[in-house]
Amino acid sequence: MTKLYVGAGPICLLAFLPSLGRAETCATARTSEAIAACLIDDLKASDVGINETYQKLMTTLPNSGKVVLRARQRAWVKERDAACAVDEKERDRERWYQALAGDYGKVICVTRYSRERTEELDRQLRALTAPAGPSDVPQPAKSIVSTSDPYQRFWSGTHEKGRWYFELTLDTRAVVKTGPTALWWGCRAGGKTHGTLWQVHGVGTTQPVSHGAVALDLDDGMLYTRIDGVWAGGPPGSNTGLGLKLGQPYQCGVSSTLAIGPLIDAGLLKINFGDGHFDYSIPDGYLPLTNGGP
User: How many CA atoms lie within 13 A of 242 on its CB side?
Assistant: First the structure.
């Protein structure tokens, strides 16, 4: 039976991790901080794998291929840092990981970049070391950055004042079959994200659908998250949410390590910014996120 825990409160979805010992450790995590630490462990392992595969390719490719690989690797790092708003100038790698772990939206972003690069390099190495065949044709490099980022969905407007609310639903049982994934949902401003981490732990079965909600209070500077009807820490007005810096525009939405478009198209993920009926009652004094915006 899959266990459900929360990233910033009582219940969240824990992602499957390939190492049994580490999966058991992460399965006990009940805070976003602990879940982020698990993702950082995966990122460290991905970094090692990327470097090892890169070095193998550099010893296998001809000189012209080495030039292309080196340029592509540098372009990937630059693209990742720009898209995820992270600073690669930190010389101490452990401090870099620690800083990254403090911003859950950035953890999700860097995780998906690392997974994408790992697959790309592994595919290239297989094409060079395995006999050519129909399934061994090298695939063109993919960039996960586009005009419309397939890994996230944000409401197009922003708010600087007022109290706002939105919801999402996730078909957890179906997403488990899609593959390991982690989601961040909340609001962002000034290059920093505020919200909750969800992960899907793909062992056994899960409840069919999980519900999430965000209450953004830009009058008192707090953000509250709710999962399956339970507010993390306390309900809006209890001053137990995440503290926000006021006086700047906030944009709210969802980011995932899996492409969100196919999940939405298949009905596995639904994000309701206020265009339809909410599954739960809106807290007193709050309005749908889309009110008063584009």
Answer: 25
Which amino acid is present at 52?
E
Could you tell me if 186 and 128 lie in one domain? Answer: no
In angstroms, rounded to a whole number, what is the distance separating the alpha carbons of residues 37 and 163?
31
* Model confidence at 69: pLDDT above 50: yes
Q: Which domain holds residue 238?
A: 152-288
DSSP state at residue 159? B
Distance CA(239)–CA(154), nearest Å, equals: 25
Residue type for position 152:
Q
Q: Is 253 buried (19+), middle (13-18) or exposed (0-12) by CB count in 10 A? A: buried
Buried b (16+ CB within 10 A) or exposed e, 131-149: eeeeeeeeeeeeebeeeeb
Q: What is the pTM of this model?
A: 0.71
Q: Residue 264 pLDDT more than 70? A: yes
Query: Mean pLDDT for the chain?
Result: 80
Token code pair at residue 232? 């993390």
Considering the domain architecture, whether residues 113 and 156 belong to the same structural domain is answered as no
The secondary element (H helix, E strand) that includes residue 230 is: strand 230-231
Q: Are residues 198 and 284 in the same domain?
A: yes
Q: Using an 8 Å Cβ cutoff, are 16 and 42 in contact?
A: no
| 11 within some domain | no
Domain tally for the chain?
Answer: 2
More confident site: 144 or 255: 255
Q: State the Cα–Cα distance between residues 200 and 101, nearest whole angstrom.
A: 19
